[in-house]
Amino acid sequence: MSKSAITVTVKLFAAYQEAYGVSELALEFPHGTTVKAVCDRLIAEHPELTKWRNITRFGINLIFVEPDTLLQEGDEVVLIPPVSGG
């Protein structure tokens, strides 16, 4: 029997980290989920993050990826909003 879900680690930075108050989340998603769906879920849980939706970059396992990249079990996902300041 195949597992119906995968678990990924989501590293949070800048506005995402501020919204959640933690630097890392472990989340379950269905097979076939894209990395963009991770962002959509976080924004659904914290609507104040909506302004970052179209300018956030995505990384999986330390490599920048396109928003439609599919997640795999155990992936480490990074959401990188623009960072202001010096």
Automatic annotation (TrEMBL):
For this protein, the record's InterPro entries field holds: Beta-grasp_dom_sf, MOCS2A, Mopterin_synth/thiamin_S_b, ThiS/MoaD-like
Report the GO terms under cellular component.
Answer: molybdopterin adenylyltransferase complex
Q: Which Gene3D superfamilies match?
A: 3.10.20.30
Which keywords accompany this UniProt record? Nucleotide-binding
In the UniProt record, does the keyword tRNA-binding occur?
no
Which positions make up the signal peptide?
A: none
Q: Which GO terms describe its molecular function?
A: nucleotide binding
Top-rank taxon: Bacteria
Instruction: Provide an example Pfam family for this protein.
Output: ThiS
| Single GO biological process annotation from the record | Mo-molybdopterin cofactor biosynthetic process
The UniProt similarity line reads:
Belongs to the MoaD family.
Q: Spell out the PANTHER family in the cross-references.
A: MOLYBDOPTERIN SYNTHASE SULFUR CARRIER SUBUNIT
Listed name of the protein: Molybdopterin synthase sulfur carrier subunit
